[in-house]
Amino acid sequence: MRRFELPRRTIEAFESTGVQMDFLPRVVGATETSVHVATVEPGGTIGVHRATKSQVFAVIAGEGQVAGADGLRVALSAGLMAIWEVGEMHQSWATTAMSVVIVESDGRFETTEHHREL
């Protein structure tokens, strides 16, 4: 499992105002990609399972913990994301109500210098 800060930028293109956008990594070489939004209530968990595709788990609101194959829990909160590779065992827990965007792909996630690894 790798953890990153989500880069946030003010969007002013197209005469936009009042917009902050977090940028997920680009998907490269994919034939299939899906995007899900999950809300996990405090104390809830997405149980331990093997990633069937590469997966980004980006926290949009709230706080929780995630673990990779080693089972070691690490904190994840709004503005942070975890990336699990295909086949990697993982689990997540919500400490507070937590909203996440989950992107699954058979491609690979390409992070940039703006995605600071933790």
Automatic annotation (TrEMBL):
Residues 37-101 form the Cupin type-2 domain. It comes from the Bacteria. InterPro entries: Cupin_2 (IPR013096), RmlC-like_jellyroll (IPR014710), RmlC_Cupin_sf (IPR011051). This is Cupin domain-containing protein.
